[in-house]
Amino acid sequence: MLAVGPGDADRSDQLAEAVLEVAKPADATVVLAHVFTSNEYDEVLDRLDFDTDLDTVDPNAVAARHSTIHDMESILEEHGVDYEVRGAVGEHGPTIVDLADSTAANRVIVGGRRRSPTGKAVFGSTAQEVMLSAPCPVTFVRHDE
């Protein structure tokens, strides 16, 4: 499972390389997961012109229209790797862990950037939470800044 977010657009090549390294030799299906907080979800619904008059909008459909997911889909298709798209609404770390559990992921790949200990304490770290709580091994792809 590859967990992506809006901050991952500038590192899609690095994330794709990590995914291909694991998925291609194993002939695995990659789950492209995008988790939105409630506020992010509402903003994305407005920006992507979803009909919010409907009772519910499927988070999978919202994730599938997100540009970061499109970038990864193109790369996986180019390399002949099967994938499916999953979207979810909730706090990033716990929801990524829940998706990994519900999809029976063999590995989770997350991106991030180097932060100071103070930065992690003040702002938290989604990647750190996933690494500590995921039901499977986690690969962290650090952004080259």
UniProtKB/TrEMBL annotation:
InterPro entries, alphabetized = Rossmann-like_a/b/a_fold, UspA
The record's family statement is: Belongs to the universal stress protein A family.
- Enumerate the Gene3D superfamilies for this protein: HUPs (3.40.50.620)
Highest taxon, organism lineage: Archaea
Please name the source species.
Natrinema versiforme JCM 10478
Pfam families with a match to the protein in the record: Usp
Name listed for the protein in its UniProt record? UspA domain-containing protein
Which PANTHER family does this entry report, sorted A to Z? STRESS RESPONSE PROTEIN NHAX, UNIVERSAL STRESS PROTEIN UP12
> Which intervals hold domain UspA?
9-142
